[in-house]
Amino acid sequence: MPSILSGAFGIAVYVLYLIIGFVQMFAIMDGLSYALGIGKVLSFFIAIFLTYIPLVGSCFGVYGAVEVWDWHLYQAILLFFWYAIIVTFAFILTISIKILEKGV
């Protein structure tokens, strides 16, 4: 049985994940530059590392998206915590299916 992430769908998911990662990195870069008053080049190199530190990077990224890009807070939160929504939905769906299978 082929994996759900094989073929064209898998490539599309990978490309979308990369795009989201770059957008997050640039939001973190702009947040750092705006909050700390440092240049774009320095904030870019710091953002490369902070992108993969979940809470710290996400805080600077949400700050950058809201303050620099003028996004609404919910949009910035969705950009950085989209995976939490998907995991929560999958968890609820799995529990619901198990409950329905038991007939409770």
Distance between the termini: 32 Å
* Fraction of residues in β-strands: under 5%
The total count of strands amounts to: 0
Uncertain segments are none
Query: H/E order of the elements?
Result: HHHH
What does this protein look like?
This protein has 104 residues and is mostly helical. It has one domain. The chain contains four helices and no strands. It has helices spanning 7-36, 40-50, 54-67, 73-102. Helix 1 crosses helix 2 (40-50). The longest helix is centred in the first third of the chain and has 30 residues, at 7-36. The mean pLDDT is 89.
List the helices and strands and how they pair.
Blueprint lengths: L6 H30 L3 H11 L3 H14 L5 H30 L2
Question: What descriptive keywords fit this protein?
Answer:
single chain, 104 residues, mainly alpha, 4 helices, elongated
Summarize, please.
This protein is mostly helical and 104 residues long. The chain is built from 4 helices and no strands.
